[in-house]
Design a protein that fits this description.
Helices cover 26% and strands 21% of the residues. With 341 residues, it is an alpha/beta fold. The protein has a seven-stranded mixed sheet with strand order 11-12-13-10-9-14-15, with helices on one face. A four-stranded mixed sheet has the order 2-4-5-6. Strands 1-3 form a two-stranded antiparallel ribbon.
C-alpha cells in the first residue's frame, strides 16, 4: 500500500506482515553478534557487517554503528553510554523474548541528540536504519483541541512502522507515523486491550465508540472481538488517518469487504486539529466501522442512538476534574457504559 510519508509501498496487509513475523528478527545459523554494555560507550572495534547468509545484524552491533556515526558528526562526544544514542523502534514491533537480529530497513531511531547530517548519513550508510526522528520535548499529539500540537521531527528516511498487539481473537496490526504519534511498546498482555475485552464481556455491546482512538488499537481490537459496529474518533489528523488506514490493513480479519476513504492524508494534514467531527473513512461488510476526526465533546452530534459502550482514553487521565466533567457530559448526551482504559 502507498505510504503518505515516503511514497513507497511500505504498508502491507496484516496477514502478509504476520506470516513473516516468526522469522523476521530471528538469527540464521551463520549469524553472530556481540552484546554490548548499554551504560558504557561501545568498544573501539570495527563495526560488524551484516550476516552474509541472511543479511541481518544483531541490534547491539547496529546501535554501535549508529552511535559512531553520531559521534563522528558531533552529536555525541563519544564518552556517553551507548544508550544515549536514542531509542530503537523496530518494524514491526511485538512482544519479543530475546534481542532481535535486524534485517535491512527495520529500525526507526528516536533520539534527542541526533542532527540532520547524522540522520542523512545513517539512512544512507547503516542498512538497518529505516528512518531517523529527532525527539521533541513533549509527546506527539494534542492534549486538548485548544492546545498547540506536539510532534517530533522526521529528519531522514521514513518513520512509518507497525506494532502487533495480541487480542483473544487474534492479533491486530497497527501502523503509525512515529513522529506524529506516541510510542506504544506491545506486550504479551496489553493492559488497555485486556480492559476493553473485560468491558465487552460485561456489556456485550452492539455499538462501541473509541472516542480518543490514537492509531486505532482499541477500535480494531473491538472489531476483532466481533462487535458489530465500531466508531473511532480522534481530533489529531495523524491519529484519524492511521486509524482509517489500519482498517484497510486488518480488513481480512474484521469481516470487512471494503474501506472507503472520505478524506486523504493531505486533506487531514491541512486541518491538523479538528473540532467539528468530519467523517474520514467507512468500512462495510459483516461489521461496520466508521472513523471521524473531531473533538470528542462534539462527537455525540454524529453518533447513532444506542451506543452501548465507549472508551474515553483521555490524554490527561491524571486530571480527575477534567475526566469527571467529560464523562458526565458523555453520559448525559450519549448514555451507555463508559470505561477509561
Amino acid at each position: 500500500m502507498h505510504c503518505p510519508v515516503c511514497g513507497h509501498d511500505c504498508v502491507t496487509d496484516a496477514r502478509e506482515l504476520l506470516l513473516a513475523l516468526p522469522e523476521r528478527f530471528a538469527p540464521c545459523p551463520d549469524c553472530t553478534g556481540l552484546v554490548y554494555d548499554k551504560q558504557n560507550p561501545p568498544p573501539d572495534i570495527d563495526a560488524a557487517e551484516p550476516c552474509p547468509s541472511c543479511g541481518k545484524r544483531f541490534i547491539d552491533e547496529v546501535f554501535a554503528d549508529v552511535y559512531r556515526v553520531m559521534a563522528a558528526e558531533g552529536d555525541l562526544l563519544g564518552t556517553e553510554p551507548l544508550a544515549a544514542a536514542g531509542t530503537p523502534l523496530v518494524h514491526p514491533g511485538f512482544a519479543m523474548h530475546r534481542p532481535p537480529y535486524l534485517p535491512p530497513r527495520s529500525l526507526v531511531l528516536l533520539s534527542r541528540s541526533v542532527g540532520a547530517r547524522a540522520a542523512a548519513r545513517l539512512v544512507a550508510t547503516v542498512p538497518e536504519v529505516r528512518g531517523v526522528i529527532r525527539a521533541g520535548t513533549g509527546t506527539p499529539g494534542i492534549r486538548d483541541t485548544d492546545a498547540e500540537p506536539e510532534t517530533h521531527t522526521l529528519l531522514a528516511g521514513c518513520d512509518v512502522r507497525a506494532d502487533v498487539f495480541p487480542t483473544r481473537a487474534g492479533p491486530v496490526v497497527v501502523y503509525k507515523q512515529q513522529s506524529a504519534l506516541h510510542v506504544e511498546f506491545p506486550r504479551a498482555h496489553d493492559p488497555k486491550i485486556l480492559s476493553l475485552e473485560r468491558e465487552i464481556g460485561r456489556h456485550r455491546p452492539r455499538t462501541f465508540v473509541d472516542a480518543c482512538s490514537g492509531a486505532g488499537t482499541l477500535g480494531l481490537a473491538a472489531a476483532r472481538a466481533g462487535v458489530p459496529r465500531v466508531i473511532a474518533n480522534d481530533a489529531w489528523y495523524a491519529a484519524a488517518y492511521w486509524t482509517a488506514r489500519n482498517l484497510q490493513v486488518n480488513r481480512e480479519f474484521l469481516g470487512i469487504e471494503r474501506v472507503t476513504m472520505h478524506q486523504s492524508y493531505d486533506d487531514l494534514r491541512r486541518r491538523e486539529v479538528a473540532r467539528e467531527p468530519i467523517r474520514v473513512a467507512t468500512a462495510a461488510g459483516a461489521q461496520e466501522v466508521e472513523v471521524y476526526q473531531g473533538d470528542l465533546r462534539l462527537l455525540p452530534a454524529v453518533l447513532p442512538a444506542g451506543v452501548d459502550l465507549a472508551a474515553l482514553d483521555l490524554f490527561e487521565k491524571a486530571d480527575a476534574e477534567k475526566v469527571d466533567r467529560i464523562t458526565r457530559a458523555w453520559r448525559t448526551r450519549v448514555g451507555g457504559a463508559i470505561f477509561i482504559p
